[in-house]
Write a structure and sequence with these properties.
alpha/beta; Aspartate Aminotransferase, domain 1; Aspartate Aminotransferase, domain 2; three-stranded antiparallel sheet; 14 helices; binds pyridoxal-5'-phosphate
Length: 398
Amino acid sequence: MKYNEKMYGLGSKRSIIREIFEYSKARAKEIGAENVYDFSLGNPSVPAPNDVNDAIRELLDTESSVLLHGYTSAQGDLGVRTAISNNINERFGAEINPNLIYMTCGAAASLSICLKAVFDEKGGEECIVFAPFFTEYRVFIENAGGKIVVSKPQEKTFQVDIADFESKISENTKAVIVNSPNNPSGVVYSEETIKALCEVLNRKQKEYGKVIYLIADEPYRELVYSGVDVPYLMNYYDNTLVCYSYSKSLSLPGERIGYIAVNPKMQDAEKIYLCVCGAGRSLGYVCAPSLFQQVIKRCLNAKVNIEAYKENRDLLYDNLTEYGYECVKPDGAFYLFVKALEPDAYKFYEAAKKHEILVVPCDDFGVNGYVRIAYCTSKETVLGALPAFKALAEEYKK
Ligand code: PLP
């Protein structure tokens, strides 16, 4: 074998989202960007808060090059980790400390590191994910030597189906990933769901006499509408690792900054933290970007304008349901998960494309027959798309 075929497969198979993105750029050149309604990418449309820009300017004017552009310790600058752990404790009543925080290059890195930290590389261990799920989970889990096991959701609400979840746990289960607010459904798992899920996990840990890790993937934690509460999983389950990112909460996806928080109540918490450090090292993450570690320290309570997302959500949800589309009203993130108007989501995506609407068919997210609308776009794009969505629905009624 001349090269690693698995890596070749990952590199050469273009994701449908990237494919749509390329099509969108080409189509915009032909008919003008304002006539293409591109809802494919989860790239935040609202700008980073002013606090972020102010912090960058102030840092550049006042701090040394070493602090801004030098290496930090592998787990991140101690002052930054202290500020983050204090903030977590204030907001969620947790009892974390800086030596259980590990700075990362965003949620993708946080997840890859956590999985690598807990999975036995000899294989045979499983990670449960809840459909619909972020497609990259499969890549990250398999890269850590694990096997993905998909738990199906409750119909219509897309909350966790607790009975199905329980049936998927076996003595091989090593970890469970919970993503709430969810990509691609926008659903926030209720406290009732979280309590039920943790009760099952605690029972199964006892039954099998082993630890099952709960990995909370939380890049959308701050993007919730109408005051909905997102339970903080450390407060519900001891063996929790939190994977946080500022990509969406501060509109900084290109800056690659986030962290892992290990629950102090976890069994062997310090050892698991060292496994996290080792996994980061083995994956070649030398340290998270220094400048943005410092920016985050100064912007822990900054917020993006989520009203703009809420406005898009309401416009799309209210109008699409009136036109006859079926979807769950999302409480968070910036996605609407819509039932395709025919069983084959890919064919529906092609039909929408003829109306210049670009949505993502979701079979790879573990639920067939749905498409994802990423409404992190301008309001003009949403308003422009509404008549096209209406015409598409009418076409199916004929
Ligand atoms: N997890 C989920 C559910 C996501 O939707 C994304 C990005 O869209 C990520 C993780 C990765 O985020 P990041 O940019 O912080 O790596």
